[in-house]
């Protein structure tokens, strides 16, 4: 059975596609190869995947209604792992229309493709950003998430609601994956780990927002991928205990579930800078700055539901993950 992975040239999509191929599954990967960050990195990821005969790449913008419909009608994918999106909290303040096109229109076209072509399970990327103004940590899937602080977070919340409507109306089993600050080899240049390493390597100041007091639930990419692998065949069923009188935000009377994908440990960002300094063997100059619009001071995932459902909880220590990322980063930069 061929599995569709959207965003296959992206960070998590690349790793998921590679893991599926290593497990003997055929993969169709799609991506629009937009220029949000260096396209050469996306092409390098695709070159890795192209070494596998069971991988086929289709360049496609999911906002293209006709193109997406034709792909689904031709392939009739039984499983869809939807990881394509316009990413980035801060960029959503600059180019909001890109988020509507990719994250809302594109997702609607995915839902329609699943609806009309017999999809057995849709997994899609949500984000810890949906927790928005929530301050009680760890963040639980049973918490309401009605106060987003960025358009990016709002589009991810909208994806969860859209998937629920389709699960209810058209019986499409759907699982939402709230990823928490995923990092590791082949990561994105706009994310903290890469930005810090690149600045230290070039002798530029490392920008630490909230005056260095930001805390994040850093999740190593292999752990995130393991969670996805286990959930692909864990097709959600209706929750027999769900009640509209006291609705659980994580489950439903429809075949719809939400899971946090996080390390369930919060780390101060300044500590990550210290680990990168050690791995690179070079000191960083720190620039302490105020909080940025749309950002939150702390994230931490409660993964009890994930562990209960599939017997797995992410657990790679930040020290190990940073070392692996820097090893890859130096190789990618031609320094090792």
Keywords:
336 residues, 10 helices, 13 strands
Explain this structure.
39% of the residues lie in helices and 16% in strands. The chain has ten helices and 13 strands. The chain has helices at 11-22, 39-49, 65-75, 96-116, 151-170, 192-202, 221-232, 269-280, 304-310, 318-332; strands spanning 2-6, 26-31, 55-59, 79-82, 121-127, 174-179, 182-183, 206-208, 215-216, 219-220, 256-261, 267-268, 286-288. It has a seven-stranded parallel beta sheet, sandwiched between helices. The chain has a two-stranded parallel sheet with strand order 7-10. Strands 8-13 form a two-stranded parallel sheet. The chain is globular. The chain starts with a strand and ends with a helix.
Structural class: alpha/beta
Task: Give the SSE order as H and E letters.
Answer: EHEHEHEHEHEEHEEEHEEHEHH
Strand content bin: 15-25%
What percent of the residues sit in helical stretches (DSSP H or I)? 25-40%
Mean pLDDT: 96
Number of strands: 13
Oligomer: single chain
C-alpha-based Rg, rounded:
19 Å
Strand order of the largest sheet: 3-2-1-4-5-6-11
- Main beta-sheet strand count, sense and barrel state: 7 strands, parallel
Q: State the shape.
A: globular
Report the span from N to C terminus: 39 Å
Number of helices: 10
List unreliable stretches of 5+ residues.
Answer: none
């Amino acid at each position: 059975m061929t599995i569709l992975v959207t965003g296959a040239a992206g960070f998590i999509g690349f790793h998921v596609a590679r893991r599926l191929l290593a497990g003997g599954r055929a993969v169709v990967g799609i991506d629009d190869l937009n220029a949000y960050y260096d396209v050469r990195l996306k092409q390098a990821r695709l070159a890795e995947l192209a070494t596998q005969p069971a991988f086929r790449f289709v360049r496609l913008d999911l906002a293209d209604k006709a193109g997406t419909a034709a792909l689904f009608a031709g392939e009739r994918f039984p499983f869809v792992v939807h990881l394509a999106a316009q990413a980035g909290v801060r960029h959503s303040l600059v180019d909001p229309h890109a988020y509507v096109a990719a994250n809302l229109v594109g997702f609607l076209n995915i839902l329609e493709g699943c609806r009309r072509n017999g999809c057995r399970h849709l997994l899609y990327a949500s984000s810890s950003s949906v927790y928005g103004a929530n301050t009680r940590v760890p963040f639980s899937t049973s918490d309401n998430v009605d106060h987003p602080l960025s358009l990016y977070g709002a589009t991810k919340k909208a994806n969860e609601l859209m998937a629920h409507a389709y699960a209810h109306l058209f019986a499409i089993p759907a699982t939402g994956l709230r990823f928490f600050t995923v990092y590791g080899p082949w990561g994105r240049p706009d994310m903290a780990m890469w930005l810090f390493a690149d600045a230290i390597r070039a002798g530029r100041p490392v920008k630490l927002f909230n005056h260095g007091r930001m805390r994040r639930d850093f999740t190593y990419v292999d752990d995130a991928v393991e969670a996805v692998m286990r959930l692909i065949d864990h097709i959600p069923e209706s929750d027999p205990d769900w009640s509209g009188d006291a609705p659980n935000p994580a489950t439903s009377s429809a075949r719809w579930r939400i899971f946090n994908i996080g390390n369930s440990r919060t780390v101060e960002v300044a500590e990550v800078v210290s680990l990168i300094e050690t791995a690179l063997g070079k000191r960083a100059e720190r620039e302490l700055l105020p909080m940025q619009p749309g950002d939150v001071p702390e994230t931490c995932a409660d993964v009890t539901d994930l562990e209960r459902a599939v017997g797995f909880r992410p657990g790679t220590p930040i020290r190990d993950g940073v070392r692996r990322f820097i090893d890859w980063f130096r190789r990618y930069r031609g320094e090792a």
